[in-house]
Amino acid sequence: MTSENDEPTDLDWIQLRRDMGTAHETTKEKFVRKFGENPFVPIGCLATTGALSYGLWCFRTGRSKLSQRMMRLRIVAQGFTITALVVGVMMTAGKSLK
User: Fold this and answer.
1) Collapsed DSSP state (helix, strand, coil) of residue 45
2) Is 23 helix (H, G, I), strand (E, B) or coil?
3) Do 10 and 3 touch, CB atoms closer than 8 A?
4) Which of 2, 8, 27, 58 places its Cα 20 to 30 Å from the Cα of 39?
5) How crowded is the C-beta side of 16, counted as CA atoms within 13 Å?
6) Are 74 and 51 contacting, i.e. CB atoms less than 8 angstroms apart?
7) How far apart are CA 7 and CA 2, in angstroms?
8) In 10 A of CB 66, how many CB atoms?
9) Is the pTM of this model over 0.70?
10) Which conformational region is residue 62 in: left (phi greater than 0), alpha (psi within -120 to 50 degrees), or beta?
11) Which element (helix H / strand E) includes 76?
12) pLDDT, tens only, 4-53
């Protein structure tokens, strides 16, 4: 490989990956794992996106009262998502301390 003072080359990283094994997680596998660990975050993201999209559509079609309600719902959904993220991080940190 390389000496202590030299930077590792690209080929050194390839060899290191081979030595460590080929356990590589795909995007779909990572999403399923993360969803299983904390399902409230993607649900909150979908709720936020849905409320925003429908609210913008209502605004465009001239239904301003419903549009305002959807924007308020979007804020609630964003708060839910942030809370789920914080709780998930705290739970993960608690597990790693044990």
Assistant:
1) helix
2) coil
3) no
4) 58
5) 8
6) yes
7) 7
8) 15
9) no
10) left
11) helix 64-97
12) 566 766 677 777 777 776 567 888 988 888 888 888 999 999 999 999 99
On whether the CB atoms of residues 33 and 69 are closer than 8 A, the answer is no
Tokens of 27: 């995007």
Cβ–Cβ under 8 Å, residues 58 and 21: no
Among the residues of 24-63, which ranges form H helices? 27-37, 40-60
Q: Judge whether 48 and 74 are in contact, CB under 8 Å.
A: yes
Which one-letter amino acid corresponds to residue 49?
Answer: T
- What is the signed CA dihedral for 38, 83, 86, 29, rounded to 10 degrees? 20
Among all chains, which residue has been given the structure tokens 């975050």? 41
- Is the separation of the CB atoms in 1 and 18 below 8 Å? no
Query: Quick one: tokens of 33?
Result: 């794992």
Look at residue 88 and tell me whether its pLDDT is greater than 70: yes
**pLDDT band with cut points at 50, 70 and 90 for residue 54:** very high
Amino acid present at 16: L
